[in-house]
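Supplementary Methods, section 5.1.

A reviewer requested that the exact input to the structure prediction be made available. We therefore reproduce it here, unchanged from the version used in the analyses.
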Amino acid sequence: KAFYAFGFFSQYRDDHITIFFEIGFPNKVMSSVAGGSRTERGCGLLFGLSFRHPACSLSFSGKHADSHFYSPYSSGKNYAERAWMADIAMKPLKRLSLGCAFFAEKKASPAGNEQYLSFLIREQAFLKFSAPKKGYALVRFNHTESGKKNGAERSLQMKASAGFFAKEFVLFFFSGNAQRRGAGRFSGFLS
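The structure derived from this sequence is encoded cell-by-cell as follows.
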C-alpha cells in the first residue's frame, strides 16, 4: 500500500582513515484482511572502517538488517541479511603486492517460497608482480561456499594472467583459469 523510510549517516575521513556508520528505518504500510492497515517497521545498520597507506591497506565493513528490513530502492539487496567483509593488501616490495579478502552473508529470514536461510562465504587471495613498461604477472585464488536448499555447495578457482610489453606500446596478454565445483574434477582453459 505505501512505503516510507528515514535514516542517519555519519562519516569521518582523512588521508588514511575512513570510518562510517549508517542506520535506516524502513516502514511498510500494508492492507490487512479486515480492511484496515498495519505498519511493519524494520531496521538496517551498515558500518565500516578502512585504512590506506602506500605500503598497506585494510578495510572492514558489516551489515545487519532485522527480519522486517525492506528497501526496494537500495543499491544493494533489499532483503534482511547479515553480512561481513574484510580485506587486506600489502606491498612489501616496490613491484610486489599481495592480499586476501573474506566475505560472508546470511539471510536473516527466508523468502516467501523458501524454508531455509541461504548463505554465502567467499575467501580470496592474490599475488601480483608488476614492472612499469615491462609487464606484470597476477595469480588469484578463490574459494566459495554457498548454502542452498539441498546443502552447501563449494567451489575452488585459480586464475593466472600475465602481460608483457614489446617496444613499450604493444602488450602480449596470456591468461588461464582452473576451477572445480564440489568433489568434481578440475576444468580450465588457457588463452
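The mean pLDDT is 86. These observations are discussed further in the main text.
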